[in-house]
């Protein structure tokens, strides 16, 4: 079982509100910029995409890869971050 | 080949459903993904119909770039597959999948990590009919009284089969047959724990299975050291003895009084100190006795006719003599 990063813990601890995409685990400066260019400027927009994909892991991972070029680890971090957030707050 | 871009959203969804994929809403952002997925499904099914080679699928399942069709099919057919074991790799992906869901527990291979997979095929056939309590090592701590009757022997069997599936098989049946008549708890756990120790030294059990069987029976008379040390403690099924720890005062801002009102607030050491302070003889009596003894000794010393000599008195006497001699010489 891999341990979660501090970013993950911070994100999952509270409602995301108006946090930027950079607040998501696995999404740093570079990926965040790319997502913002595509129109996903807030974390909740990415959440929207996650939910539209019915929280499916593979589809979401693929979408992340296609949209911002995230590698496997980043995809996994973002996915688990969002999933855990949904488990707590959705 | 149908151009997937020409399909309407509904048609795309229907096509995905043909492959058993329950797609979500096909909107602008998701359409591309679903088209890709459908394309992959169609390609893989075309490939599969041409040549059934397990290896390619396995390679696809292993790789990081998503070769999802194999996994997608597994995800949707897992209920039908629950009784068969097609291949180790598919079982592995199922393991990863079902770990995330609250899947039916009859699939015992859910609980076996990848490193143990070679024996998973062996175990799944053996254990499938048993109940869900026999999970991995963690269940050892949970084996309370309701599970005692069968899960411990089950776990021992699992551990043994895991390390040497072929050689141990008959032994387990022999041992379980003999054991079922006896009470299970501590002896089985000792064997279990001994097995753990043994396996840490490089699976010696596999090689020396008949000798270890004798060894276990020979060393049975050796009693548990802990039970000798603490004969008063009640036996627990897991062999783990735990006492309630004194709570850390003020931990997480919670004052101890409110959290554990029934516990004594003082530590054991301060309680001991309190006990010591309650002496048999009160303090003032001891001081009076001490003073009496001092007085008595002084009186005895004072009543002596000749004072005791020590080096200081000798020195004083010498000085006095010297002074007398000086004054008498004048």
Write the layout of secondary structure elements.
The complex is a heterodimer of chains A (90) and B (330).
Chain A: H1 6-12, H2 29-37, H3 43-52, H4 57-68, H5 72-89
Chain B: H1 9-18, H2 28-50, H3 54-62, H4 68-81, H5 88-100, H6 120-127, H7 139-142, H8 151-163, H9 167-179, H10 185-200, H11 204-207, H12 209-218, H13 225-229, H14 256-259, H15 268-277, H16 283-302, H17 311-329
Helix pairs in contact in B: 1-2, 4-5, 8-9, 8-10
Report what the structure shows:
The complex is a heterodimer of chains A (90) and B (330). With 90 residues, chain A is an all-alpha fold. Chain A has a single domain (6-89), classed as Barrier-to-autointegration factor, BAF (DNA polymerase, domain 1, Orthogonal Bundle), CATH 1.10.150. Chain A contains 5 helices and no strands. Chain A has helices at residues 6-12, 29-37, 43-52, 57-68, 72-89. The N and C termini of chain A lie far apart (24 Å). The model of chain A has no long low-confidence stretch (mean pLDDT 92). Chain B is an all-alpha fold and 330 residues long. Chain B has a domain at 9-49: Transcription Termination Factor Rho, Rna-binding Domain, Chain A, Domain 1 (Orthogonal Bundle). Chain B is 59% helix and 0% strand. Chain B has helices at residues 9-18, 28-50, 54-62, 68-81, 88-100, 120-127, 139-142, 151-163, 167-179, 185-200, 204-207, 209-218, 225-229, 256-259, 268-277, 283-302, 311-329. The longest helix of chain B has 23 residues, at 28-50. The radius of gyration of chain B is 41 Å and the shape is rod-shaped. The model of chain B is unreliable at 67-109 and 119-145 (pLDDT under 50). Chain A binds chain B through residues 49, 52-54, 56-59, 61-63, 66, 72, and chain B through 24-25, 27, 29-30, 32-33, 36-37, 64, 66, 68, 71-72, 100. Chain A: Keywords: Chromosome, Cytoplasm, DNA-binding, Nucleus. Chain A: It is found in: Chromosome; Cytoplasm; Nucleus envelope. Chain A: This is Barrier-to-autointegration factor. Chain A: GO terms for molecular function: DNA binding. Chain A: It holds the Pfam family SAM_BAF. Chain B: This is Lamina-associated polypeptide 2, isoforms beta/delta/epsilon/gamma-like isoform X3.
